[in-house]
Amino acid sequence: MEQLPSGSAPAPQRARLLTAAPLAAQTGERRAGGILPATVTLETALYGLILLSAILTRFWDLGSRALHHDESLHTYYSWLYAEGYGYQHNPLMHGPFLFHANALLYLLFGASDYVSRVMPAVAGVIVVMLPWLLRGPHLLGRWGALVASCLLLVSPSILFYSRFIRHDLYCLLGTFLLGIAILRYVERPSPRWAILGGAATGFLFTTKEVSFIVLFIFGTFLALAVALRAAPALLGLAAAALVAFGVTTRLLGRLGVGPLPGIPWDQPTGERIWRFTLALFQHPVVVAAIGIGLLTLVIAVWMLDRRRGDDGWIDGLLGDAPVGSTAAALRALLTERRGLLIAAGLGTLIFVVLYTSLFSNLMGLASGTFGALGYWLGQQGVQRGAQPWFYYLLLMPQYEFVAVVLFPVAVVRVVWRWLHARRAGAPLSRRLFVHAFLIYWAAVMLGVLSWAGEKMPWLTVHIALPLTLLAAALLGEAAEGIERAWRAWSPARRRAVLAVAGGIGALAVAGFLIMAWASAGPYVQQATARGTQLQRTLRPWAAEHWAVVYLPWLLLLVLLVAAAVRLGTRQMLATLALTGSLALALAQVHVGWHMTYRSGDIPTDMLIYVQTSPYVPRVTQELEQLSQELTGGMGLEVWYDSGTQWPFNWYLRNFPNRHYFGTRLTEPPTAPVVLVSQDNYSPELERQLKDYTYQQYPMRWWFPEEETYRRFAYAPELKDEARQNYQDARRPPFSLLDVAGSVWRSLWSLREPQQQADVLRLVAFRELPTTIGSYTFRVYVRNDLVPYLNAMRY
Description:
mainly alpha, six-stranded mixed beta sheet, two-stranded antiparallel ribbon, 34 helices, 62% helix, globular, disordered N terminus
């Protein structure tokens, strides 16, 4: 902001100048890249509306859904921390930020299901609003940033896990902040963005181990970008090193060299860790990797030394980099070290303070680095969940419609623009750098998470964020193109564009409604893997005239061809992208509303996976009422076993006389209430509890994987052979051609009307082909107390 000459105006006038005149003097770039608006414009008002919507959607009815198994772990240990029992980092439960944040909230507002989810909801609101910082013309642009906030607001996966006490929303927030800091620093180097990047990195590593993947993705992309500018030969050297390592590894395998030693994640004693470290560094593959790496480093230093000349390392290699390039940003970071030092110090401080539990556990520094990385690398071999390689490829299209549909479009467009720029000898635009960064981020994150042995639905948000930002960038450019053309168009042409947009929307809605009607046929008894069950069929008339379902889409194709002739192909595609994305965004609202607010604790959604049933908090409420009746407080004695320990450690926290008895009762109990899980039902238990009456409830239930997405293809990478094939009766092993054939059969089956209908009913209405699975528990109440309990209920 410009400075006013001293004495140039009285104080009130100077105040008006500070809020109005400098705004008018600033360039569009400065206004778009600012942090806070100086005046209330339509754009600012829209962001305000998005903020209010984000707060409402993230905080409304936040405590109604029962706490998931993992949520109960996080909340219980946070509650113990708040109660003064301390906290020590354990890699099993990821980073320490969650526990410190929740403990603070419990101290301020008390412990409850609602309060437990407040911090992720806050993080979710911030994530929705962060695109404001990418409004610059060289980043997402004004339209792109606004669209990004809208899409993040209605993203079903980000919405659901913004209301879920896990580490992923915190990790997503740290990732987003770091990505923004990188893009803003490359655009215009400034110490504030370096400091934000350092703080974001420190915060990111206090969330969960996905932070290692994020740093790998961002680091390798920036390294590639700098190498392309400063020393392109390094890319060939790196490729040669990777090829050499691959050949060496394959040769060692043929010579009988075994796999790398297993990480002792289950019992990480000092002796076992030392033995593992020695075995690891003595392994031929690791020795070869170190040798190739050192040789590559020596050659790289030699190449750079020849290239730098007499100007020094920084100026010699990066001095001629153009403004706005990654190499120029690196040069600024290395020459202006004040911001770099503050960033490193701030990030380190955040890491140290939280991992040491406010300096009360110095061993947290080891567990938060080598311990965390080692534990979760070891977990990949366990394959917890045993999800197939195509897990995210089928999960994402069910929820993130806009991002998934536009991703291939964005990839083709970026490649086309890059090729066009190379043929013309023109420099690449800064926006192309942003788009390439988002594509690389999304593609590598999807690849790494799909390769990992442990795949879980909450990790979807880490793929959804870059995909959503990329879709917003594409839609933002389409909106900018229409906005520029709109001023030059005649009224007749404007009406034509609006008519095309309206026609696209109307035909898309008509196509959905006709398909929904045609697929809503009667239920009939059919044989399934779980026996004979009721299955939805097509309406009889629709089954005989299924071509009618395609009529709106054929008319849409005719409309698009006519629009291309009348308006031009570019304007037709822009109109299609914006209107189609609006329709898909509304579909996301429907899907997100159903999953988050209507059926959040009933796992009809693949994204929910496993969920504690609503009967658990209901049972807790009844026990609280019974305790008040019998003891005048919370003195009721409640016994519970190993299977009900989670989530009942959390739900029984206010019962001081709760008693955990493990897997079996050693003697008949005297407690008024005993909770027993499905794993521990037995005739012996029935004899010990003969003076009790029980009622059985589902404790948790899960999405029926075997009857749905697992049938898509073979998964030979799974260790459990029984889970490699749900498509047919073939047995392992499966070759790559077998896997490709299984994928083709699934795709080819979509030509059948019933298959099309089943997909629609699943995605749009969450109608499952079978019942959800469940794990039950029993509430045993002593017979003399049954009348009290019935009186409360009825």
